[in-house]
Amino acid sequence: MSDSQVMAPEGPSAAGGGSTPPPAAQPAAEPSRRGADWRKRAEITLLTGPAILVFLTFVIVPVLMAAYYGFFRWKGFGPPTDFAGLQNYVSILTDPTFQDAVRHNFLIVVLSLVIQGPVAILFALLMNQKIRGRSVIRMLIFVPYVISEVIVGTGWALMMSDTGAVNTVLAKIGLENLQQSWLADPNIAMGTLMLILTWKYVGFAVILMLAGLQSIPEELYEAAAIDGASFWQQQFRITLPLLGPTIRIWAFLSMIGALQLFDLVNIIWGQYVAATAGTSTMATYMYLNGHLAGNYGFGSAVAVVLFMISLVVALFYQRFVLRRDTEGAVTGNSGRKRRKK
Q1: Radius of gyration of the chain from its Cα atoms, rounded to whole angstroms
Q2: Residue 72: helix, strand or coil by DSSP?
Q3: 145-177, pLDDT tens digit by residue?
Q4: Would you say 31 and 38 are in contact if contact means Cβ atoms under 8 Å apart?
Q5: What's the rounded Cα separation, in Å, for the pair 298 and 291?
């Protein structure tokens, strides 16, 4: 054979002139995939099962029971038999005292956001700087938040009474004209309540703001300083926008807490003074007209109304305010959005 001759390929292609068929495709590993899916579901069930059980037992079931008892005139013992229908709910919604309590709650919500938010941000900016005694200042601001509401309420009630420490100090320094009935005067009682709430809860807001500030890269401030931005320009252009998610989460927690406010008002103003002083809330109304009056069916109906108001506020806030913070948080959302695009 000469060098110019070419060796013919062996096999079927040489005999029939056809191409070599591709190897057969391997079957998918369905059993192993099914096993992995089963294990994943078992892990999810094992990890979330206890939390779901606790949530159902201590949240959903009590709400359903309260809704059931709200249809009866029930004294709190024995099975409810005196069916009242929607009469309890009609009485609640048409009661001027309850309407005042709702207005007080929403006023507390607004004032808490307007007062505590800016104060917390300013304190957080101050304590985020390298100053002496920063740890001590942080402790002093956060300590009121961890003190029991009973202790706080009792202490402030003693200090702000007509013969308490505040009026006594004002008299000692010659400012008798500034003495006020801080707790009983409807014109200033709400201001007294907001002072106490700010002192008590601003520490929690400061801690959240400090945590948010720690996540902002220092390089952004350095670049802004090189460009000639002042301190306050850096805060408005860098800090506040990047602190937005933290502020929105704090605002949500503050709103829900303000709607459910009970302990401090009940401890400081007592059972009956809160309504006349203009500091009553939906929770104090429920306690007064349900538990103290021995009408637990009516009190259960008030609890349902309070729950529904809080739920509507929470859903509205999540839908229109927290939406951009929660988008893509659930697995698969970002993928579906990309597919839609």
Answers
A1: 32
A2: strand
A3: 999 999 999 999 999 998 889 999 999 998 888
A4: no
A5: 9
